[in-house]
């Protein structure tokens, strides 16, 4: 449904340009970027390498994001841990990133969203609202550990990143939802944590959908029918399954996830949005840009390479015939609906 108040409308100025309206971006690796030395509080010193900063998000009208706790098995970087069974190492890596978000909140730069009440006024001026999304479930050391992460502020969990985890196969490491993964899903449901299906293998996706009756989102995944038949992207059947749960599919703006064998364009991004709309409904549309998530602004479509260029994506959707209500759903309305339904009171 459309977002509340002025966030649900789009207007044009006297020159016909799309007006700036609030956006929600469902997938940004803010802590990961900070660990690479980027000062998020100031404009980017390397705009061809980094496009995401708090000033850039503000300039683009992005008022709420899902900020990740991204951990990587085998990496020696600050976000890395040794191996699948290194639960303590993975947890330590995630806690280092959580400390970055806490520090930003203490400095008044962001406000972490823990309850529905924290969404109040999200679309007005003030600190960026951040919902914490755990991308890769290995920091969860056991099903009993889910409650601890919930108390620390995690509100969305994807059971794996590409390489798989103790709980589920990944898009680059085929495998099912494991026996322990079934237990973790139950624990996440009991805690009221939202499920993120991006990066799940096909078998693990099927296992998740069978293990829970709750809403499932794909925070930053595109359509396999357009980009090629790979588990990193969603089949038509998966899009329909997510839509059937009242979930959403966040458009990923990485060019290689939009088009095959050539530079991606805004029209390619629009094609993914329209296919999701046609497979589900306008209630399935959302943004999960993944800006700077292991790629640079130059790897995104010209005209939508950075947060401040998002109005250009809105204009392209309008030119393709997407009406005002559907665009409002895409920009923010669907994420607000899902978050209000999943967050504790």
Question: What report would you give on this structure?
Answer:
With 345 residues, this protein is α/β, with parallel strands linked by helices. The protein has one domain (21-342): Metal-dependent hydrolases (TIM Barrel). Helices cover 34% and strands 16% of the residues. It is built from 11 helices and 13 strands. The strands form 4 sheets. Strands 1, 2, 5, 6, 7, 10 and 11 form a 7-stranded parallel β-sheet that branches. The chain has a two-stranded parallel sheet with strand order 3-4. The protein is globular, with a radius of gyration of 18 Å. Mean pLDDT is 93; it is low at 1-19.
Short description:
It is built from 11 helices and 13 strands.
- Summed up, the helix count is 11
Spatial extent as radius of gyration: 18 Å
The CA-CA distance between the termini, in Å, is 20 Å
**Overall pLDDT confidence:** 93
Question: What do we call the CATH homologous superfamily?
Answer: Metal-dependent hydrolases
Count the E strands: 13
What number of domains? 1
Structural class: alpha/beta
The appropriate CATH architecture is Alpha-Beta Barrel
CATH topology: TIM Barrel
Order of helices and strands: EHHEEEHEEHEEEHEHEHHEHEHH
Spans of at least 5 consecutive residues with low confidence: 1-19
Proportion of helical residues: 25-40%
Fraction of residues in β-strands = 15-25%
* Main beta sheet strand tally, sense and closure: 7 strands, parallel
The outline comes out as: globular
The top-level CATH class is: Alpha Beta
């Amino acid at each position: 449904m459309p977002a509340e108040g002025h966030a649900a409308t789009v207007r044009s100025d006297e020159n016909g340009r799309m007006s700036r309206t609030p956006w929600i971006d469902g997938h940004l690796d803010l802590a990961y970027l900070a660990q690479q030395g980027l000062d998020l509080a100031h404009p980017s010193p390397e705009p061809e390498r980094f496009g995401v900063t708090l000033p850039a998000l503000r300039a683009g009208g992005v008022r709420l994001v899902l900020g990740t706790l991204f951990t990587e098995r085998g990496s020696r970087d600050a976000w890395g841990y040794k191996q699948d069974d290194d639960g303590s190492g993975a947890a330590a890596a995630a806690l280092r990133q959580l400390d970055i978000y806490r520090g930003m909140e203490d400095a008044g730069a962001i406000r972490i969203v823990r309850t529905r009440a924290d969404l109040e006024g999200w679309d007005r001026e003030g600190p960026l609202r951040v919902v914490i999304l755990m991308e890769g479930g290995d920091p969860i050391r056991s099903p009993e550990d889910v409650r601890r992460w919930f108390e620390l502020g995690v509100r969305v969990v994807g059971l794996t990143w590409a390489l798989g985890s103790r709980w589920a196969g990944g898009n680059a490491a085929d495998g099912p939802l494991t026996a322990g993964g079934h237990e973790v899903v139950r624990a996440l449901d009991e805690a009221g944590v939202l499920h993120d299906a991006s990066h799940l293998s096909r078998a693990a996706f099927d296992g998740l959908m069978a293990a829970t009756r709750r809403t499932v989102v794909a925070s930053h995944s595109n359509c396999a029918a357009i980009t090629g038949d790979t588990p990193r992207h969603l089949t038509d059947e998966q899009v329909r399954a997510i839509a059937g749960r009242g979930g959403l599919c966040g458009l990923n703006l990485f060019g290689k996830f939009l088009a095959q064998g050539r530079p991606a364009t805004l029209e390619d991004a629009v094609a993914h949005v329209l296919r999701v709309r046609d497979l589900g409904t306008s209630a399935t549309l959302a943004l999960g840009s993944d800006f700077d998530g292991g790629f640079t602004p130059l790897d995104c479509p010209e005209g939508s390479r950075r947060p401040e260029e998002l109005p250009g994506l809105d204009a392209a959707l309008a030119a393709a015939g997407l009406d005002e209500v559907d665009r409002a759903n895409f920009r923010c309305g669907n994420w607000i609906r899902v978050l209000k339904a999943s967050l504790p009171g």
